Every structure is written in structure tokens, then in C-alpha cells.
Amino acid sequence: MREVLDELCAAAARGPVALARIIAAHGSSPRPVGSAMVLTSDGTIVGSVSAGCVEAAVLAAARDVLATGAAVVERYGPDATDALGLEVGLTCGGEIEVLVERVDDASVLGDLAGRLAAGEACALLTTVGTDTRRTLMPAAGSTETTWDRVDADARAMVAAGSSGVVGGEVAGDRTPVFVHVFGTRPRMVVAGANDFVRALAEVACLLGYRVTVVDARATFAVAHRFPAAHEVVVDRPDRYLRAEYEAGRLDHRTVVCVMTHDDAFDVPAIAAALTLDHFAFVGALGSRRTHTERFARLVDAGVPATDLARLHSPVGLDLGAHTVHETAVSIAAAIVAARSGGSGRPLAELDGPIHR
């Protein structure tokens, strides 16, 4: 829903909009819980809730909701059909439940957009019924909401960082509540200030990372050279990593990519990334010869073998990449495979469901 939130709020300022969100998914599903599609009063469509399998049916429901104002929950499985008897089911074999509601007042959603832009984690709570109500709950453990009471199950969902429907108690009325959790973006710290870094920053933003480019050379570490990065920092990468870790701004989701091509910076940065914590991914760009020489220096620097085993170097999957953007896609693919447990092999060579 992050991707449609700004357009949703802008459209709602001009008139009612219909918001459709996946509130539950069972089995294989092309989009996760929380995926959203918006229909504006002028007929503009933003976002999606599937790979195109059920969009037409959801759009029809959204038009009805815009006309009546009454929210609905639609369920789509592999054998679903629309009002005309046409097949609109999920070809992947799963089942999703979609809450379609009319948004006349986007003040709560505007507050949500502001909090997310500020890097805050929070949850949007929506009652699941013909008359939807919305409120925000900070994900940091605060119990303050605009409702009198919210079920402990909802707070547990927020604490766990997972979205879903709970039987929430709102103002004494036992009403199902969709708890839509928005966590902070995971961070990617990229050491270096070259064309490969600029391309990787662009791709990483599409994957939802908050990207920091850090390089000790002030001449190269200039913000306008990396327009996709959220921040560009002039500092030694190893010193920056240590300071951010000590400040509690790096966690188990953090990705570190070292792309400086200078042993004076590469080795200390990689050593810091591998020994500070078990970050989600630590990679280093370079040829096989560079990797061999750099690995020996890391051993000499005292980095334990168990930590060295977590280093992705040379970083990236074998895509036959040549350009900087192809290389960025190769690195991004390796990161996605590592965080989701993917094999990196062609899907055509594998058995089993595509959507896990």
C-alpha cells in the first residue's frame, strides 16, 4: 500500500475514492497481505491486488462501493467467477480476501503517509464491516488510539510486525479489525561513490530499502550524483558502520555492499560489516582475483572464518551482466535470493509453487 498512498491521499482530496486491500491470503498468492488498489472518482486506477487475475472483479466491486458507500469483503479462489459467469479466479491456486471500502476523509491516511515519510513504524487499524473506521497505532508499543479499546490480539500483531485480521474489540463492540502494519524500511549501506553504486541505489529503492551511500572522498560523495539515495555521507565506511550500529540504526535486516575498489577502504568496511552483527547480507564487488587477494587480507585482519563464510564475494548472480544497471540487477537478485531463501536457479528448472 505504500506505493499507492500518496496518490490515494491526493485523489481523496478531490472526491471519494475506493480502496481495495488484501486482508488475508491462503495458499499461493501473487501479492502479499496489504497489497492495495485504488479507484478514484474520475476512474483512474492505481496499484493492484493480483497479477491481473481478479482486477476486473475488484474494479466492479470498487465501483459499487463508490456508489453505495458500503464496504464489502470479496473472496477470490481458483474457481471464482464474476456476475456474468466469467472466470476471474487466481490461476496460482490460492485464495485471497479483499476489503473494498470508500474513503471520503483521508485525514488518517494522510497522517499515515506523514509518519512513513518520517521513517516511523506504525499500524493502520480498520474495522471490517459495511461501515469502516480507521485509526493509527504506533508500532513502538504505545497503547494510545482514538478508539476506547483495541483487542490485545491487535497489539500482538503490531508487536510481531505482521498484518492480518483479528477479532478486535472496539468501543465494546466485538468487530473484526484489519491490522495493517507498516514497519520501518530496511537499510542498505553502500560503500563507494561510483556509477555501479548509483545504479544499485536506484534498484534498491524499488525493493523498499532506505539507501545510504558512504565514501571518504568528499569530491565523489556528492548528493546530486546519487539522486535515488536517501542520504550521501562523507566518512570512512567502516567508521560510519560502527557509529550507526552503536546508535542502534542498523539491524538484522541491514544490507551492506562494499563497492569502493580500494583495499584501504574495502577491507576495514567488510571486516566491520561481518563482525558487528549478523546483518542480512554483506557483499563486495570485484573480480575473482580481487576477491582472492581481499580474502587473504581479511584473514590477516583477524576476521573469523565463520564470519568470512557469510561474505558474498564476488557479489551478484551469474546473469552475464556487463552494464552498471545489469550489474545492479545481478546484485539485487542475489540479495532477494539470500533474504527469501531462494536458490537463484531458473524457475523452469524447479518443481513446486512459484509463490511461497
Concise overview:
The protein has 356 residues and is α/β, with parallel strands linked by helices. It has helices at residues 2-12, 55-68, 107-117, 152-160, 195-206, 237-246, 263-276, 288-300, 305-308, 324-340; strands at 17-26, 36-39, 45-47, 72-76, 95-103, 122-127, 134-138, 164-166, 169-170, 173-174, 177-182, 187-191, 210-215, 231-234, 255-258, 281-284, 311-312.
Task: Report on this structure.
The protein is elongated. It has 356 residues and is of the alpha/beta class. The strands form 4 sheets. It has a 6-stranded parallel sheet with strand order 14-13-12-15-16-17, with helices on both faces. A 5-stranded antiparallel sheet has the order 3-2-1-5-4, with helices on both faces. Strands 7-6-11-8 form a 4-stranded antiparallel sheet, with helices on both faces. Helices cover 32% and strands 22% of the residues.
